[in-house]
What we know:
Layout: H1 21-26, H2 40-43, E1 44-52, E2 63-71, E3 81-85, H3 100-108, E4 111-115, H4 139-156, E5 165-170, H5 172-183, E6 190-194, E7 201-203, H6 206-219, H7 221-240, H8 243-249, H9 261-280, H10 286-294, H11 302-310, H12 322-329, H13 337-340, H14 343-354, E8 355-357, H15 373-383, H16 390-404, E9 414-419, E10 439-442, H17 460-476
Helix pairs in contact: 4-5, 6-7, 6-9, 7-11, 14-16
Amino acid sequence: MRLLVLVQLLGSLAILVAGHIDHWERLHREPPIRGQPTKIPRIVETKWIRQKVDNFDPQNPSTWSMRYMENAEHYQPGGPLFIYVGGEWTISAGSISRGHFYDMAKELGAYLFYTEHRYYGLSRPTASTRTDLLKFLNIDQALADLAYFVEEMKNTIPGASNAKIIMAGGSYSATMVAWFRQKYPHLINGAWASSAPLLAKLDFVEYKEVVSESIRLVGGDDCANRIDRAYDQIEDLLNQGDFDKVREEFLLCDTIDFTNKLDTGSFLSSISNYLAGVVQYHQTGDIEGVCEIINDESISNDMTALAKWFTQGVSSCMDITYASSIRYYVNTDWNHGANRGAMRPWTYQTCAEYGWYQTSGSENQIFGSGFPVDLYIQICADLYDNMFTETLLEANVARTNVIYGHMQPAVTNVFFTHGQLDPWRPMGLQEDLNEHSPAVVIPLASHCADLSSISADDSPEMRAAKERVFELIQLWLGNSTNVP
């Protein structure tokens, strides 16, 4: 069975499985773009641009080097600048040498860039990720970085002084391009926002609802119902104090303390997030493959069937305690996995701006009730020197929504796309915002699936969405007057 890992904006912090830390880091890699890249070493160059640490304090002279990549393979002087925006991941050359955005850049003679977000990858504005130094990590600073980048590229690329600008992003970076169009409309002509969450929300119960719906839709009722029953069984055993049975089934280390709600929440959320990882980037066969294992008729016990899938490939006990997770992710050294894998800085952003905690707070999902929003509120407090309280988290989410417009951003020339199976879909636009900013939900598609090139495997709806964005970009560039 092929398990496609998740690039989700935040799941449970507690995926510290012995020997599997790199799996957790891969949960926050860049959105995969399917297909074979062209000759990357020759056509893609990595460069650096000096940025201000604080874009909003003219008296602060501190600067840092932001990494970006460029592909001028098909550029025609006077052509547009296409900017693929990085999110909470390390950028890579392959993402601007394949995919639909690359294909459109080739067709339109565009100069293609890929920017790396401050505090992610090798773009490090501060000496560490110490809590007080993370104050420069926020959407306002990141958008200002992009604004400076646009102006510098127009000034330095031959024939680009009057170039039109098109941006694209996936997931959080799709949110960025939509908000960039709102905040800096004079610097961008249009944007493609694939799977963009726009509504900040502390208790994001809808995420696990859609994961449940997608498993039911693709994997079938038997699979979804068995997971539901397995969670009921686990929680019943824990409520009865039969901790050893759960430990044995799921190969958990003795360190886990099921009398501690934080340990219990970490464990229960971990199972749901592994399943969410399959759903979020589903390709044909992924959810079906998981359900084939879970539905094994030779296993009569529902919890045992779920544990069989969850523990496959595990050779030693799994340490999924809350404390071990905190110890790992509280490390502030840039060379530590908590920062290389993006989780410490990204979790800070969720505490400071977005919430988006994928909890068990809804009855309309199949993962029990053991990881409420309280778990994530505690994570924010414990990782960042007790800086974040529940009141402050709620205020931070409210601030983001007020500044950037909730589900009604004041934008035109943005194309919003979502996949039906994508658990992030409820936080984004699923209907046209206005006549100049349409939205499309692609049936049976997953998170950011439309970023890949047009192919024979595309459904009619997927192909139509990809063709539509190309038509819109031509309209925004002034190359067409016939796009509805």
